[in-house]
Design goal:
GO terms for molecular function: beta-mannosidase activity. This is beta-mannosidase. The chain has 837 residues and is of the alpha+beta class. The protein has five domains: 9-193, Sandwich (Jelly Rolls), CATH 2.60.120.260; 197-308, Immunoglobulin-like (Sandwich), CATH 2.60.40; 324-357 and 368-387 and 395-421 and 433-540 and 604-654, Alpha-Beta Barrel (TIM Barrel); 658-749, Immunoglobulins (Immunoglobulin-like); 758-834, Immunoglobulin-like (Sandwich), CATH 2.60.40. The chain contains 16 helices and 42 strands. Strand 21 (337-342), helix 4 and strand 22 form a beta-alpha-beta unit. Helix 4 (354-366) packs parallel to helix 5, helix 6 packs parallel to helix 9 and helix 14 packs parallel to helix 15.
Length: 837
């Protein structure tokens, strides 16, 4: 249907912008120099496009560019405008980063201090026929944060800038995996919107299920409450019509009324399910705003279309003998969360487009991840991100943006935090994938355990947000989405405020960081958590990313560029300490890179397999982290240039629907079979103890049957589980083609040897198939295909083979590669290469 001439006219102001440095420590050759600017964009990316600065992601350029965050910047453009009879014209800034003053034709429209909000200015009286000048001046965010910290009063925070004093993306100031850009800019679009009578300001459909869900046959009824806020230029009566699935309803708004609710009852809706639990049907909700015209017919003023899904969300926190569980329940079905934490995918988030979100989420799907937690030091993620998660059945958890710090609750900061919360909860409320809104990252823990109480000296620290404001906002705007006051958090039935330690493994969610920071990864098995929302282990980026971003000669773990790209406190020391109990420390950089990559993967496999073996006592694990925002040594499974590290394959194996894992239990070893699929799993479980030469020393077999969403523990007799020569023996357990392994000794203490494998590589339409047959026991066989083609992908990695066994890797690559390159010892990798003999 064609839109009426009464509908808003939206004009994107993305052309003819320029950028000028103002006050600050600006290099002499850039002072008062004006360069073209891109909107959306940032100072760094505009200067980079003008070839005036080096790439901040390379070598030691981060420090060279630190002056940018100490400088004030001027963005300006001119645009033509002619009156067209609209009642109102508004300038809409979807995102300003961060401390900004906006002028139109020399008149100050307003000042802003929040990256996480949009701003709308009525400019009808300020526009003039012909050319108009729009200027946005950004003040130094570092200086602004320092000044605000003094004004508000010091409050504890991590890292070196008081990011908690202003509403800017916390990791923009650097993190223990992040570059310090402290940039500024118009990071979201700027539009000029002209309209008459009224327009839709906010459309918030809330889809609920009736009766209580649990029927996967699709016979549930659905209710959609469409809450509408209307901006008005006149007091004229207007009507709102909402339609979904062939059902429509109209509500009349009285003259001057600015809000209304349209309720639709939809029979026989299909439920939206997480991936692996069912389908993801989505319904379009069309909302139109009308006003009577002179011919007594309804003239359309505005319209909006939103996709919704019907599902229910609950947390099972019913106390039991072991403490308090934290089980996510969707449509009445308990879900074991196989999650990963998410940070902004670029230090300059305006560069992340829908295609990039899709690539990253496809990598999450590849790794069998079913939930993405959006961490609270980044941003409220984009509609593209959430749309893609809706389509894929990827559950999402969005933190409110308060992380690892105490926050002032008083104005002006408190008002800004509440305003951004209200805007973003309303914006995201319709997405069925969003099932958790979380008050903060680690702030309850920090207040309890990080000596904040002394340092705060009685000042507010954020409790009012977590226990009062945020739950009230969620209850009002998104009551169908679950809320927790923080991560980690220990719940008590009937109250979100309690005296339990927030990181108690017996209660609710926990973060495990003594592993990596102080203790070795086998100690993950010392924990019996109910739900783990953060845990991780560091590793370098892929080799191609490392060598593209760091050009040290010689390149070593401690060469200058490497240290710039290692942000963790004593990160290299922890890498070394975490490797040596398992493998010797290599002296050659290629072997060092492989050893640290492998150790990261093994650490997380150890953790995830243990947590899954505890189900249903433990009902979730969220690995820190899926992605990176720049090329860096970090906890990520996908590096800053989007390339999968060995860790992604380890997660894929450990998060598979069906898992066989061997774990210590009650003084011996047991096989735990985990079936997280929709179908029963049965067959003969066969466990064999082998020599490293492949000879069978002992075996145990028994029939097992696992219903859907269940696990079974099979204790092993000592005749199988006790080694006679720990250095030269292993266990393999197998059920219906799914395998698990147990080595009795650390790799460095075994008889593993490196031997030349038989490798056959064949060109295919999309790349190569590479068959590898090993002559000796081979642990964690991997094909590091980025070494031969930085854009190549391989379908699997970290495969353990007995002597004479084979594996076929499928490589996707557009490059002509000499097939022998796949057999190179720097490409075809294994644990064996790291055990010197």
């Amino acid at each position: 249907m064609a839109l009426s001439s009464h509908t808003p006219v939206v004009r994107l102001l993305d052309a003819d912008w320029s950028l000028t440095a103002l006050d600050g420590p600006v290099p002499a050759h850039l002072r008062r120099l004006t360069v073209p600017a891109t909107v959306p964009g940032s100072v760094h990316t505009d200067l980079l496009a003008a070839d005036l600065i080096p790439d901040p992601y390379l070598d030691g350029n981060e420090q060279l560019l630190s002056w940018i965050g100490l400088t004030d910047w001027r963005y300006s453009t001119t645009f033509a405008w002619n009156p067209a009879g609209a009642d109102r014209s508004e300038l809409v800034f979807a995102g300003l980063d961060t401390i900004a003053e906006i002028e139109l034709n020399g008149v100050l429209l307003g000042t802003t201090r929040n990256m996480h909000r949009s701003y709308t200015f009525d400019v009808g009286s300020r526009l003039k026929a012909g050319l108009n000048e729009l200027v946005v001046v950004f003040r130094s965010p570092i200086k602004a944060a320092d000044a605000a910290s003094l004004e508000l009063g010091y409050r504890p925070h991590v890292n070196h800038h008081p990011y908690n004093a202003i509403r800017k993306m916390a990791c923009s100031f650097g993190w223990d995996w992040g570059i310090d850009t402290s940039t500024s800019g118009l990071w979201k679009p700027v539009t000029l919107v002209s309209w008459s009578t009224a327009r839709l300001a906010t459309v918030r459909p809330i889809a609920t299920v009736r009766p209580p869900a649990g029927d996967r046959a699709g016979s549930c009824g659905g209710t959609v409450q469409v809450h509408v806020d209307v901006a008005r230029a006149t007091e004229a009566p207007v009507s709102v019509t909402a339609a979904v699935a062939g059902i429509s309803c109209t509500v009349e708004l009285a003259p001057g009324a600015t809000s209304g609710t349209v309720t639709l009852e939809v029979p026989g809706v299909d439920l939206w399910w997480p991936a692996g639990y069912g389908d993801q049907p989505l319904y379009d909700v069309l909302v139109t705003l009308h006003a009577p015209d002179t011919a007594d017919t309804a003239a359309e003023l505005d319209r909006s279309s939103t996709r919704i899904g019907f599902r229910t969300v609950a947390f099972d926190t019913t106390p039991d003998e072991q403490g308090t569980p934290f089980t996510l329940v969707i449509n009445g079905q308990s879900v074991f969360v196989r999650g990963a934490n998410w940070i902004p995918d670029d230090a300059f988030p305006h560069r992340i487009d829908r295609a990039r979100y899709q690539q990253r989420l496809e990598q999450a799907e590849f790794a069998n991840i079913n939930l993405i937690r959006v961490w609270g030091g980044g941003i409220f993620e984009s509609d593209d991100f959430y749309d893609l998660c809706d389509e894929r059945g990827l559950l999402t958890w969005q933190d409110f943006l308060l992380a690892c710090a105490a926050y002032a609750e008083e104005a002006p900061l408190g008002d800004e935090i509440e305003a951004e919360a209200r805007e973003n909860v309303a914006r995201l409320a319709a997405h069925p994938s969003l099932v958790v809104l979380n008050g903060n990252n680690e702030n309850l823990w920090g207040f309890q355990e990080w000596n904040w109480k002394l340092r705060l000296d009685g000042k507010t620290w954020g409790a009012g947000f977590y226990y009062d404001i945020f739950p009230a906002v969620v209850a009002e705007l998104a009551p169908h989405i679950g809320y927790t006051p923080g991560s980690p958090f220990s719940p008590v039935a009937g109250s979100i405020r309690n005296d339990l330690h927030p990181n108690d493994p017996e209660h609710g969610t926990m973060h495990i960081w003594d592993l990596w920071n102080q203790r070795d990864y086998p100690a993950y098995r010392d924990y019996a958590p109910r739900f783990v929302a953060e845990f991780g282990w560091q590793g370098p980026p892929t080799w191609s990313t490392l060598t593209e971003s760091i050009h040290d000669v010689p390149l070593t773990p401690e060469s200058p560029g490497m240290l710039v790209h290692q942000k963790a406190m004593e990160g290299n020391v922890k890498l070394t300490d975490g490797l040596l109990p398992h493998l010797p420390l290599p002296n050659e950089i290629g072997d060092w890179h492989w050893a640290m990559s492998l150790n990261q993967a093994t650490a997380i496999s150890t953790a995830v397999e243990h947590f899954r073996s505890l189900s249903p006592h433990c009902m979730g694990s969220i690995v820190w982290q899926l992605n990176d925002c720049w090329p860096v040594t970090s906890w990520a499974a996908v590096d800053g240039y989007g390339r999968p590290k060995p860790l992604l394959y380890a997660i894929k194996h450990a998060y598979a629907d069906r898992l066989i894992t061997i774990q210590p239990r009650q003084g011996g070893l047991s096989v735990i079979a985990v079936n997280d699929s929709t179908d029963a799993w049965s067959g003969e479980l066969r466990v064999r103890r082998y020599t490293d030469a492949g000879a069978v020393l002992a075996e145990h077999a028994e029939q097992v049957t696992l219903p859907a969403r269940s696990s079974v523990t099979v204790p092993l007799p000592a005749s199988v589980s006790a080694a006679t020569d720990a250095a030269a023996e292993l266990l393999r357990a197998e059920l219906a083609g799914v395998r698990g392994h147990w080595f009795f000794a650390e790799a460095r203490d075994t008889t593993l040897t490196a031997a030349e494998a038989e490798v056959t590589a064949v060109r295919t339409a999309g790349g190569y198939t590479v068959q590898v047959t090993v002559p000796v026991l081979t642990r964690d066989l991997a094909l590091l295909v980025d070494m031969v083609d930085p854009d190549a992908q391989v379908d699997d990695m970290l495969v353990t083979l007995l002597p004479g066994e084979s594996v076929v890797f499928t490589v996707t690559s557009a490059r002509d590669v000499d097939p022998s390159d796949f057999a190179a010892p720097t490409v075809l990798r294994s644990t064996n290469q790291l055990v010197p003999r």
